[in-house]
Write a structure and sequence with these properties.
The complex is a heterodimer. By secondary structure, chain A is mainly alpha-helical. In chain A, 77% of the residues lie in helices and 5% in strands. Mean pLDDT of chain A is 80; it is low at 1-22, 31-64, 67-81 and 595-599. In chain B, helix 4 links the parallel strand 4 and strand 5 (120-123). The longest helix of chain B is centred in the first third of the chain and has 18 residues, at 15-32. Classes of the chains: A mainly alpha, B alpha/beta. At the A-B interface, helix 23, helix 24, helix 25, strand 1 and helix 26 of A face helix 1, helix 5, helix 8 and helix 9 of B.
Chain lengths: 728, 227
């Protein structure tokens, strides 16, 4: 007959407590940070009794860094928050007290309720969730399902409200741990699976790996070793990427025990050795070394190579310090060691260590251990022939196993009883068959369920990945399209702008050309006119006047005789001829002067413009100009624009100002030409200035001259427009 | 009474008018009986230069009657009768010159007086046979003879040369000729800037605003006898 070895409890202790431990480590780090601001809290802080894994600690630290920031913000800048801080302090105190094993379950529950009340009114955020989660973890060991559910659902709701997948995963984890403790594998598996999905979604691979491990553990508990193996390999893949030596050790260890359970001892040896190879890679690993030896010993025990198994147990038992710290492991080693001797037939001196193991297990409430211990006692007494004692131990084991839902131990106990209690063999065997059948059916059911869940999860993850990649490509596509559109927009805008600029330049060029053309035409015309005048003038002077002079001169020489009156008249006519000669000469001279009068002159055109506008507007003007040559030297374009500016301003004066007097000044300082047009019209209020298109036009025109334009007006007093343009 | 033989050279592009002058000289010959005139004629600068070179190299030249408004027939160095006058004055220093001109502007009068220094300066529009008769007599007797306008200019010039200098006069003259201010730099050894300055000073003298146009400046200058 084969007895299930102790590794069971070792595994349980590590799997169930480990997630909790990690969180306790996290809380400790939070508390340490808080302690920096709160000495009192630090003093009441009770250090976690569990081993401290540094790798995990740092990972946790960085992962939860926002937590710390929030906490610092929460605690530090508000001195008025002492109430809150006191509450937090008290919360830690009560929570820690509630976790003391020495207290009764009721007291611990009361302490938890107090600690819960303390944080009830804290703001709903991830910090509060962390505290609630602590209470949930603590409550899961109180064997009060109503209380656990009330507090756990509170945490679940909060996590959901905060819409954080990581927190929601933590809530599922709590449920999973609780149901596992209650041996409700189905529910536990489902919750761990949900937690796994959420952690994967939140990209927290380390925790996702842990969830896979927990699921694998449940699978192995229900004899679904293949399922467990698949899950473990997946979790190993994750832990390898996160370099978590301790978690890898746990995975390989579980793979080893599974292989043992499947009686594939070659495989299990490989796994155990792999696990042993990982032990030096994490801190405080001596416990795990002993566990590894124990498991190797158990493997040999299972292979019934008892002599070879004994040295492993001996070796482990020599580490007195560690085994005294870990009574469960100690008990296991003692029990396994003794079992080897019993099996080898060396039955003296085994009773005492077995009893010691039993006492240790009973004292720490290690129910599965206690059951196994009793079964071993029954085996021992059966072997030495004390059937009565053997039956009594086996019956005790059966009772305890049933109480604790340890079905496999129940089966063992039934087999044993059937062998020992010959009178009731049939009865026990019948019970065994029934239980075995129902267990098999249950396991099969669970296996199916797990497979279904696993399938769903895989599908979910695949779908997630698909969605992610889809979203990824959609985002990339959107970004590319947006960029493209933006680029197109930019180029289009640039092109439009360029076109506009080009058009404006062409327009200006055209204006200039037109002006120059008319100017040249006009000049040509003037030149022609002037040449013609010159010719006429010359002709008059040299031809007609000369001939007239000759005629008159010679006529005057002619001596006439006749009446005195007639002679007088003759003389008078000759004088008239002289006057005519002078007139023609003057005319000839003036014809030449007119050339000047009509020459193109900028200031003259301005003057003409002023005259014109003053007549239309009925005002008198005063025009003053310094440095006329500078104004004449301006480029044609500048002249056009200035003339148009002036025309527009004067138009405004005519239309709106109703001015009596307008004074126009052209003057120059150093490098700037200034024009001011001041009228004494009715003016306008400054608010009107911005609105008009007219003023916008004037500003534009000034800008073309690289100049400044300014209007100042006072209602009822008049308007002053000033333009200044730089000289090149 | 002794009759003095006088060699006269008359230059004008209009032969008709020379006949008019000859009439006056004949009258003078018959009336005074003191002079006998030997007359040579030329109708162009070229002809004049030839006659001077050929005839008056051997014969003494007493009097030249010169028209300023002679056409310029592409002879280098001779733009008008003015240049011919300068040459005669230089080559025949003892010869008396009577200049007859149809131009009565002050700058021209001034220029003629300055560079030819003629013994007689007559303006055609003010000239009649009696005037020419008197002028011949005066000049032959060594008395300068000027037309009324020239005499007026001479009296005014004494007053105004204190105020306006030669360049101011020239500016006014060229402007009145229809030249633009910026073209004046081609005719005067002055910068545009200083021409503008002088114009402003002229405007000050004539008591008109600086921004008034050149036309007004000229009108005012004419009014006050500067032109």
């Amino acid at each position: 007959m084969h007895i299930k070895p102790q590794p069971y409890t070792v595994r349980e202790a590590n799997t169930v407590l480990n997630p909790i431990m990690i969180r306790i480590e996290l809380y400790n780090s939070l508390i340490l940070r808080e302690a920096f601001y709160n000495r009192k809290a630090f003093l009441t802080f009770v250090y976690s009794p569990y081993t401290f894994n540094m790798t995990t600690y740092y990972q946790t630290y960085w992962r939860e860094f926002p937590f710390a920031v929030i906490l610092l913000l929460f605690v530090f800048p508000f001195p008025a928050n002492t109430q809150n801080r006191d509450n937090l302090q008290n919360f830690e105190y009560y929570l820690n007290r509630a976790q003391e094993d020495s207290l009764s379950l009721d007291t611990r529950k009361t302490l938890l309720i107090i600690s819960y009340e303390l944080i009830k009114h804290v703001r709903e955020d991830s910090v509060k969730y962390a505290m609630i989660s602590k209470i949930v973890v603590a409550s899961s060991s109180l064997k009060d399902s109503v209380f656990f559910h009330s507090i756990a659902s509170e945490g679940f709701k909060l996590a959901k409200n905060l819409a954080s997948p990581a927190l929601l995963a933590d809530a599922h984890w709590n449920y999973g741990a609780y149901y596992l403790r209650e041996s409700k594998y189905n529910s536990s598996y489902t919750h761990y699976n949900s937690a796994y999905k959420l952690y994967t979604a939140a990209n927290k691979n380390y925790y996702a790996g842990k969830m896979l491990y927990n699921m694998a553990y449940i699978a192995s508990q229900t004899n679904d070793f293949t399922g467990a193996e698949i899950l473990l390999f997946r979790s190993i893949k994750i832990f390898e990427s996160t370099h978590s030596a301790k978690q890898l050790y746990l995975c390989y260890n579980l793979l080893g025990t599974n292989a043992d359970d499947m009686e594939e001892y070659g495989k299990s040896l490989i796994y155990y050795n792999k696990a042993a190879g990982l032990i030096p890679n994490f801190e405080n690993s001596q416990y795990y070394q002993l566990e590894n030896w124990n498991n190797l010993g158990v493997r040999l025990t299972k292979m019934e190579q008892f002599t070879e198994a004994v040295p492993y147990f001996n070796k482990a038992l020599s580490y007195k310090e560690i085994i005294t710290e870990n009574p469960s492991l100690h008990a296991k080693l003692l029990d396994n060691h003794a079992f080897c001797f019993v099996s080898l037939g060396k039955r003296e001196n085994v009773e005492q260590p077995m009893q010691m193991a039993m006492a240790l297990r009973d004292s720490i409430g290690d129910a599965p251990g206690s059951v196994i211990n009793r079964l071993r006692f029954a085996d021992y007494y059966g072997k030495i022939g004390d059937t009565l004692k053997a039956i009594s131990f086996a019956a005790d084991a059966l009772k305890r196993a049933r109480e604790n839902n340890l079905n496999r131990d129940v089966l063992h106990a039934l087999v044993m009883l059937a062998a020992l209690d010959k009178t009731n063999t049939v009865h026990y065997l019948q019970q065994h068959i029934e239980l075995d059948k129902s267990l098999n059916a249950r396991d099969r059911n669970l296996r199916n369920k797990f497979t279904a869940i696993q399938y769903d999860t895989d599908k979910y993850i695949l779908e997630n990945e698909r969605l992610f990649s889809q979203r990824f490509w959609i985002s990339i596509g959107a970004v590319v399209i947006t960029l493209l559109l933006f680029l197109i927009y930019l180029t289009t805008r640039q092109r439009a702008k360029n076109k506009e600029l080009l058009f404006e330049r062409e327009q200006q060029q055209y204006n200039e050309d037109m002006f120059l053309m008319t100017l040249t035409q006009k000049t040509d015309l003037e030149k022609g006119k002037s040449e013609e005048r010159q010719r006429i003038s010359q002709e008059l002077h040299d031809g007609i006047v000369s001939r007239l002079f000759t005629l008159r001169f010679r006529w005057q020489s002619v001596i006439l005789s006749g009446e005195a009156k007639m002679l007088e008249q003759h003389k008078h006519f000759l004088n008239l001829l002289e006057v005519l000669e002078t007139d023609i000469r003057n005319l000839s001279h003036e014809l030449r002067s007119i050339v000047f009068l009509e020459a193109e002159n900028f200031l003259d055109t301005i003057e003409t413009l002023l005259k014109e506008k003053s007549e239309i507007g009925g005002f008198t003007y005063h025009f003053q100009c310094t440095h006329p040559e500078d104004w004449e030297d301006l480029s044609y374009l500048a002249k056009i624009n200035l003339r148009r500016l002036l025309e527009e301003i004067l138009q405004n004066v005519v239309k709106h100002a109703k001015a009596k007097k307008v004074s126009i000044t052209f003057f120059r300082d150093l490098n700037t030409l200034h024009i001011t047009i001041a009228d004494d019209g009715k003016g306008f209020s400054p608010t009107q200035i911005k609105k008009g298109i007219g003023i916008k036009n004037l500003e534009n025109r000034s800008r073309k001259l690289k100049g400044n334009f300014d209007v100042r007006s006072t209602l009822g007093v008049g308007t002053i427009v000033s333009i200044s343009i730089p000289i090149k | 009474m002794d009759t003095k033989s006088i060699n006269i050279f008359m230059i004008d592009d209009h032969p008709m008018i020379l006949e008019g002058y000859v009439d006056v000289l004949k009258k003078l010959e018959t009336q005074s009986e003191a002079y006998r005139f030997q007359i040579e004629r030329a109708h162009s600068i070229l002809q004049a230069l030839e006659t001077l070179e050929n005839t008056f190299a051997k014969r003494e030249l007493h009097l030249v009657l010169l028209d300023i408004g002679l056409p310029n027939n592409d002879i280098p160095g001779y733009k008008s009768g003015m240049d011919l006058g300068v040459v005669i004055r230089k080559n025949f220093p003892d010869t008396k010159i009577i200049v007859i001109t149809s131009y009565d502007t002050y700058p021209l009068i001034q220029k003629l007086l300055n560079i030819i220094k003629p013994e007689g300066l007559l303006i055609k529009s003010e000239l009649n046979p009696q005037g020419l008769y008197a002028a011949f007599l005066d000049v032959l007797q060594g008395v300068p003879s000027y037309s009324k306008t020239v005499r007026m200019f001479l009296t005014q010039a004494q007053v105004k040369s204190n105020v306006l200098d030669h360049y101011d006069m020239l500016i006014l003259y060229y402007l009145s000729e229809g030249k633009l201010t910026k073209e004046l730099t081609e005719h005067l050894p002055l910068s545009l800037r200083s021409i503008e300055r002088r114009k402003n000073r002229l405007k000050d003298i004539l008591t008109i605003d600086h921004h008034t146009s050149d036309v007004q400046l000229l009108n005012k200058a004419k009014e006050q006898g500067y032109l």
